[in-house]
Amino acid sequence: EIVLTQSPGTLSLSPGETATLSCRATQTISSSYLAWFQQKPGQAPRLLIYGASNRAPGIPDRFSGSGSGTDFTLTISRLEPEDFAVYYCQQFGGSSMYTFGQGTKLDIK
Amino acid sequence: EVQLVESGGGLVQPGRSLRLSCAASGFTFDEYSMHWVRQRPGAGLEWVSGLSWDTDDVAYADFVKGRFTISRDNAKKSLYLQMNSLGPEDTALYYCVKDQDSNSWYVSPFDLWGQGTMVTVSS
User: For B43, which residue in chain A has the nearest alpha carbon?
Assistant: First the structure.
């Protein structure tokens, strides 16, 4: 089973700063099958990034994804107040069906 | 409006059954594979089950195999999850989720989520 480990668990930053979130897999993942989601309290998750680096429709260019193999990164530049949320990475297309990381909570400092 | 609306959640005793429904609108339902994803209280996301657009492919997470059954009625634009032998560990918010890409299975991210229906298993 492919396990995704996200780090850090919590990230405390101020508006205007840059957030760097990590997602590490226990096995190599095709970049095509790595996605990132944002979830705000009381809301359903929202697709941010798919194919490791492609922004979903309507997602600001402050959000960017990168990585390959087992290491993937979500970068959020120029943090806005509405960006503070929980972020999940997800993999699919492999032998483990769909799995999510445990999430990174982005807090306002 | 493109949306998914879940229903059928509630309080159920351990060992009993529950059937969740998801009504889709605003897109061509029969072209998209659909899934159920759950979130236990205060926890992360867990994929539960998926069913391909043409019903040829179905998959379950190991923790629900043999207990849950996913199905769909394309004419009614609806997705279902029959949950049997429920236990306290199944207490969660259950989301209905749509694939981004049409006519695909297992190679598409999830691009549309409902607001979820809460299932509480307790005596």
Answer: A102
pLDDT over 90 (residue A97): no
- A101–chain B nearest CA distance, Å: 8
Pairing relationship of beta strands A46-50 and A54-55 according to DSSP bridges:
antiparallel
Asked if B36 and B81 touch (Cβ cutoff 8 Å), the reply is: yes
Q: Counting every residue, how long is chain B?
A: 123
Low-confidence ranges of chain B (pLDDT < 70): none
**β-bridge partners, B81:** B20, B70
The residue-averaged pLDDT of A32-60 equals 97
For the cut 80, the answer to whether the pLDDT of residue A96 exceeds it is no
Helices (H), chain B: none
Residues of B in contact with A100 (CB under 8 A): 44-47
Residue A55 identity (one-letter amino acid) = R
User: Distance of alpha carbon A85 from its chain centroid, rounded?
Assistant: 11
